[in-house]
Design brief:
By secondary structure, this protein is of the alpha+beta class. The protein is built from two helices and five strands. Strand 4 and strand 5 form a beta hairpin. The radius of gyration is 14 Å and the shape is globular.
C-alpha cells in the first residue's frame, strides 16, 4: 500500500531584527501564502534571538515567490535561502 508523501518547502531567513519572534516572522511571510511553520531561533542562555529562523511553505509556488525580491522587516534587510531536503 502506497503512502502519500507531502512535500514541504523550507527557507532559511537571516539578519532578523533582535525584536523579531516567530509570530512576527510568520506574519511577514504569510503574505506569500500559507505557512506550515515559522520559527525564530533563540539563544538558550540569553533568551535573545540568534538573528535567524526558518519558514516552511506547503506550496512550491508560494515558496518560490518568497525567495524573490527584497525583504525588509523592522528596518533590517532579510536574506532568504532555500534549505535542501
Amino acid at each position: 500500500m502506497a503512502t502519500a508523501v507531502k512535500s514541504f518547502y523550507k527557507l532559511f531567513v537571516y539578519n532578523l531584527p533582535w525584536t523579531t519572534n516567530s509570530a512576527k516572522l510568520r506574519n511577514y511571510f504569510s503574505k506569500f501564502g500559507q505557512l506550515s511553520s515559522a520559527n525564530v531561533v533563540f539563544d538558550k542562555n540569553t533568551g535573545l534571538t540568534r538573528g535567524y529562523g526558518f519558514i516552511v511553505f506547503n506550496n512550491k509556488v508560494e515558496f518560490e515567490e518568497a525567495q524573490k525580491g527584497k525583504h525588509t522587516l523592522e528596518g533590517n534587510v532579510l536574506f532568504v535561502e532555500p534549505v535542501s531536503s
